[in-house]
Structures are given as C-alpha cells and as structure tokens.
Design brief:
Elements lengths: L1 H9 L5 E4 H4 E5 L8 E2 L3 E4 L15 E3 L1 H4 L12 E4 L1 E2 L12 E3 L8 E2 L3 E6 L6 H7 L3 H10 L1 E2 L4 E2 L2 H5 L2 E4 L2 H40 L3 H7 L9 H4 L6 E4 L2 E4 L3 E4 H4 L1 E3 L17 E4 L1 H5 L5 E2 L4 E3 L1 H4 L12 E5 L3 E7 L4 E2 L3 E5 L6 H10 L1 H6 L11 H4 L3 E4 L2 H40 L7
Parallel strand pairs: 4-9, 18-23, 19-22
Antiparallel strand pairs: 1-13, 2-10, 3-5, 4-5, 6-8, 6-10, 7-12, 11-12, 14-15, 16-25, 17-24, 18-20, 21-22, 21-24
Helix pairs in contact: 7-13, 7-16
Length: 446
C-alpha cells in the first residue's frame, strides 16, 4: 500500500521529493578480466573513454565476442545515462567520480565495465534525458563527491549512495519540457561538432589528394583533366614528375626540411611558486591540457593566464596568431592552430609559419605525418619528440601560387570551424546557465 501511494505521488502534477533509486534502475557494469581483451570484437566502455558528456570510441578496448555473450545485460543503448563510480574528486573533471554522460549512437551495443553505473529511468515516471541533466547539476556533483570514499585519485561511489540521491522531481510533462529546452541546445552543439568534423575532413582530403597522392599531377600526366577542378586551379599543377634525392616529386616542386621552411620554437613554465608571474595575469599560457580538451584544431582560449613578467621568463615570449602547436610529449600528437596570441610551456613544439610554408598547410602536414613524428621520438619515462629530431623532417614544397590557392580553399573551411566552435561555447554557456534554474523550478516551464 505504501508503494502504491508513492507511485501515485510520483505521477502527480506537483514537484515531489524522491530519490534516484525510486525513479530509475541503477545498474553496475560488467567485471570483465583483461585476458578477454582483443584487438577487435565487442567494444568495452571504460570511464577513461568518457568525453565531456558522451563517449569517445577512438581508443576503446575490445573483448572476445564469445565472452561478450555472457554480459548481454550490460549492453549500452543510445541515450542511456552512465555515471563514473570510480575516479578522482573534483576539480579534475575529466575523470571525476560521479561524472554523468549520455551514450551516443556510436557506442550502441558496447558493454559497460564495472567502474560505472548505468541509470535507466522508469519512463512512466521519469524522463531519461531529464535524469541526465539532473545528474549534471552542481547538486549531484557535490553529492557524489561527498558520498565517495577512498583517495583523491581513486575515489569510489557505491551504487547504494547513488540510489539515495534525494531531489525534487517535477511532473512528467515538465520534465519533458526541461529536457527539450536543454536537449535542443545540446543537439545544436552536437550538430556543429559533426559539421566541424566534416569540414576538417574536407580540408585533409584536399591536402592528401594534392600533396600526398598527387592526383591532379597524375591526371595531367595521363592527359586527363583533374577531377572536380576548374581550369585555373588545374593550371597550377605540373604535368609530370621528376626525381629529387631518390624521391618522385612533381616537376618544379622541392623537398625541404620543416625546420628550414618554418620557424620552430619551444616554451617553458615560469616558477609556479612566484606570484608575480601568475597573479592577475592577462596573457594566454597554453599547456597540452588545453589541446586535449579540444574537439577541433582551433585554439580559442587557454585555462591559465600569465603576467608580463612571466612572459619574459619564456624564451619564445608570445607567439603570434596562426602558430601551429604540436604537443611533444605525454602524449605526442595534440595539434591546433592558434586564434589568439599565446605563450607555451615545455610540452610543445611551436611552428611559426613566416617562411616558405603557410600555417594551414603545416597544420595538416603535421596530422598526416603523425606516425613519422612519433617514430622520431625517444625517451625512457615517456616518449618525446625534440625540436632537434623534428626540424630535419622532410616536407614537400609546392609552388607559391599553388600554396596560396590551397590556403584560399581551406582557410574558409577553418573559419567556419572557428565560428561553429565559438557558437558552441555560447550555447554551452546558455545551457549551463539555464540548467540549475530549470532543475529546481526557478524558471517555470510546461
């Protein structure tokens, strides 16, 4: 009888006090041993695969398909909400315990591992997406941090504690309205993100066709018009190849070293114990962490700021807008082009494109040659690509007219990426401002 009364309350037209365990099933993940990991098979989603609010499928582990059949009840569906039950305490948000994400379409069918909890709402009582936003609220984040046990770097949040999270639940119609408002903002952010992926893929496809596969040159050498190209652009390509230092290169083009064709510099970190280098700093100071969180190759801002005195402690001082950054260690490979003047720490190789090669060409060249860059790295504790090993790398140098045409084409793509990224930041600020007010009923909807 008590349950029926509670059930009626949950379906009422008023906001009521309840707990997560009363409106959702909280399911622990699968404890799959490492011996069943494979190079391919069924994806296994770990907390380390969580992105800001989704799942990054690029580096997931796989498990044996036969073993996976034993864990069918832990398969993830698009739209499921998953919470990290093992991790660190705030403010390390990238791996924080209690972090909630929504399962994207790309993770459909993957298996959830034991360091997470899947929250499946009772749909006749609670809107699944409303629950997601509830679990992204400051109230839940603080609750999770205070309820977790263990060390700061290895905190654990028991499922029972999750189920006891107490909150005010609005009527189902209001939940739908709140989820729609916040979801519409997130949907637009995701659409922009997907568009940016497409735009960058287009830029890389042009680079690969022109400067790696030499498709237009091969077409002209065979007496064909380069596909999808106007006559003026086709005229910028030679109609054959020549050999330079044992390498086949389009006629009239050259081979140089990246260190001679651009200006290569590094950075450093002024003493973090000296407040005159940091307090009230206004100059952007980049670390690889700033690039790790990017969804595009555009750096719009940095987490840290540094004073003028701090800048003077760095030999490379302030780098100009349009500098190409490459993280040189732990890990190697984060890349971005700067849209702001910035100083950098010792974790970068910075490429200032003031000589033969333009920055958009260099940005994509770095991405296309990442395996070769990593192959030149060395180190005992962790791999690092030094400036001395990076500078001699060979780079194809096309004609100035062709480089200018390439920049003209891809610059517009990257400007659109930049605009989309700026819009996403504005949308995220609006969402983050609305979320706490909507979740507690401060703003009335529905």
């Amino acid at each position: 009888m008590i349950f029926r009364l509670k059930d009626m309350e949950l379906k009422s037209k008023k906001w009521i006090k309840t707990t997560l365990g009363e409106v959702a099933i909280c399911r622990n993940g699968a404890g799959i041993k490492q011996e069943f990991f494979r190079d391919s098979g069924v994806p296994l989603v770990r907390v380390s695969d969580f992105s800001n609010d989704s799942i990054d499928m690029q580096n997931v582990f796989f498990i044996d398909p036969i073993e996976a059949k034993k864990w069918e009840q832990y398969r993830l569906r698009h739209g499921d909400v998953v919470i990290a039950t093992v991790g660190s305490w705030p403010p390390n948000w990238s791996s924080v315990v209690g972090k909630a994400i929504r399962v994207p379409e790309s993770a459909e069918g993957a298996i959830q591992n034991q360091n997470s909890c899947c929250v499946l709402s009772h749909r006749d009582i609670a809107d699944q997406r409303f629950i997601f936003y509830l679990l992204r609220s400051n109230e839940f984040i603080l609750y999770a941090a205070n309820s977790a046990g263990g060390s700061a770097n290895q905190a654990r949040l028991p499922v029972g504690k999750l189920e006891n999270f107490n909150f005010s639940l609005p009527p189902l119609a209001t939940q739908h309205a709140i989820a729609h408002i916040l979801g519409s903002l997130d949907d637009k952010i995701e659409l922009n993100r997907q568009m940016n992926e497409t735009l960058e893929a287009m830029a890389r496809a042009i680079f690969k066709s022109w400067f790696v596969d030499f498709d237009p040159v091969r077409a002209k050498a065979e007496g064909r018009q380069p596909a999808g190209m106007d006559a003026a652009t086709a005229a910028l390509f030679p109609d054959g190849f020549e050999e330079i230092e044992g390498r086949e290169v389009p006629k009239g083009w050259g081979i140089g070293m990246i260190g001679e064709s651009t200006k290569i510099v590094g950075g450093s970190t002024p003493s973090t114990t000296n407040p005159k280098y940091w307090e009230e700093g206004t100059n952007n100071f980049a670390t690889p962490k700033d690039l790790a969180s990017l969804s595009t190759s555009i750096l719009l801002e940095t987490e840290k700021k540094i004073t003028d005195e701090g800048v003077n402690q760095i030999s490379s001082r302030i780098l100009p807008i349009g500098t190409v950054l490459l993280s040189s260690r732990a890990p190697i490979g984060y890349t971005a082009i700067t849209t702001i003047p910035v100083s950098i720490n010792q974790g970068f190789i910075a490429i200032i494109c003031e000589k033969k090669l333009p920055n958009y060409y260099v940005l994509i060249w770095v991405k296309e040659n990442m395996l070769f860059i990593i192959d030149r790295a060395n180190g005992t504790t962790f791999l690092e690509i030094s400036k001395s090993n990076f500078k001699p790398m060979e780079v194809i140098i096309p004609s100035n007219d062709l480089l200018n045409k390439f920049v003209q084409m891809v610059k517009s793509l990257y400007l659109q990426i930049e605009n989309n990224e700026k819009e996403n930041r504005t949308l995220a600020q609006i969402r983050d401002g609305l979320l706490p007010k909507l979740i507690v009923g401060e703003i009335q909807v529905g």
